[in-house]
Give the backbone structure.
Amino acid sequence: MMANVGDRLLVHGHVVGEGDRHGEIVEVRGPQGAPPYMVRFDDGHESLVYPGPDAIIEPTPH
């Protein structure tokens, strides 16, 4: 999984009743776009994320 600053991260909920989480990648800490990513979620929370198989990177159009 590779990403750039400004790309969107979508993490699918994996528990019944838990919604998906959306956020913007504000920092890429791995080499050449690899995880981990610092993500600012839509609720304002920031977290260091190592995306799993339930995550999708949505590239920002350039």
